[in-house]
Structures are given as C-alpha cells and as structure tokens.
Amino acid sequence: MPIATCKRCGRIFNRVRRDICPACIIEEDGWFMSIKTYLHNQNDASLEEVAEATGVQPEYVADMIRDGRLLVRDHPNLAYPCERCKKPTQSGRYCASCSKEIASRHKPK
Ligand SMILES: [Zn+2]
Ligand SMILES: [Zn+2]
C-alpha cells in the first residue's frame, strides 16, 4: 500500500484515495455536515459567515467549494477570493476574468 503524508496534519498514513489521512477525512466530514446544515437554513450566507457559524477555517470551506463538494449553485454569496485579483469567485483558482486573461496570454499569436 502506498504511504503518504497527510497534507493537513502531516501524519504518515496508508494512502487510500485522498491526500489527507483517515482521521482528517472524518473531521472534514463532520465539518461538511455542519456547513451543509447551516447553508440549508442560510441560502445566501457568505464564506465568512459560514466559517464563523461552523467554526471551520475559511480556507477549508474554500477548498470544499473548489473540490466541488459544496455546490454553490444555490448559494450566490458563497465565494472565495481569486488567487490573482482577490475578487470573489466560485470555481477554480481564479475568477472568470483572470482565467480568461491567463488563457489568452498563453494562446499562440
Ligand atoms: Zn491528517
Ligand atoms: Zn481574478
């Protein structure tokens, strides 16, 4: 079985399918459930509000959105900052305009 270092807590574990260890997966699942429950009642909550209400760090909430675990379709305010311009975005690492700009820059002339 492949051995990996958990990217969250640094523990060594037998890698199954994710790059975090089983203990962190359980913890994350717990967070995920509280976030889901909170959002169920607060459709228009922002990322900060979710983090504050559930005690989950904002970057982990952002990770869940990026991974597609949290569906933002029903939550218009659930956005995290673009890595480039810090404008709120709901998918990928960059906002729509940055993605476009980056893509066009790599296009051959
Ligand atoms: Zn871990
Ligand atoms: Zn951007």
How does the SSE layout of this entry go?
Blueprint: E1 3-5, E2 12-14, H1 22-41, H2 47-54, H3 58-66, E3 80-81, E4 88-89, H4 96-106
Antiparallel strand pairs: 1-2, 3-4
Bound molecules: zinc ion (2 copies).
Silhouette: flat
Pattern of helices and strands = EEHHHEEH
**CA(first)-CA(last) distance:** 47 Å
The secondary-structure class comes to: mainly alpha
Please state roughly what percent of the residues sit in beta strands, choosing from under 5%, 5-15%, 15-25%, 25-35%, 35-45% or over 45%: 5-15%
* Structure ligands: zinc ion
The count of DSSP E runs of length 2 or more, i.e. the number of strands, is: 4
Chain-averaged pLDDT: 92
**Adjacency order of strands in the biggest sheet:** 1-2
Alpha plus pi helix count: 4
Helix content: 40-55%
How would you characterize the largest beta sheet? 2 strands, antiparallel
Give the C-alpha Rg. Answer: 16 Å
Low-confidence stretches: none
The structural domain count equals 2
